[in-house]
Amino acid sequence: MNFNIPKNYFHDKSILALMSANGALVIVTIANVLFNVDTENNVSIISYRQSRAIQVSGPTSELYQFAIFALLVTVVSAVLSIKLYAHRRHLSISILGLNIVSLVLCLVVFNALTRTL
Known about the structure:
Number of domains: 1
Number of strands: 2
Strand content: 5-15%
Distance between the termini: 49 Å
Number of helices: 3
Shape: elongated
Structural class: mainly alpha
Order of helices and strands: HEEHH
Radius of gyration: 18 Å
């Protein structure tokens, strides 16, 4: 597998801004997960449906998957962005922008699960 970074990739201001935003959001997401998982309590709400008043409980270790998801999605989007930059700059920028949306949704869903009830 040949992995060449295009010459102008890190000179593009849009790419740098989006990569910085992605990096900051990954750090915030991982820190939020690590600091807000209640390790004293072995059981946590994994899913909650308000309309039916059903809540499914599970081990708190499953909540660490949000941090793994954030890291994995960011690495994959960065690699895709680097690969596509030479051919389609706008697609590379949109991949990084959509990663920001997915990281924000990851934060919202994690906070909704941990702050319920």
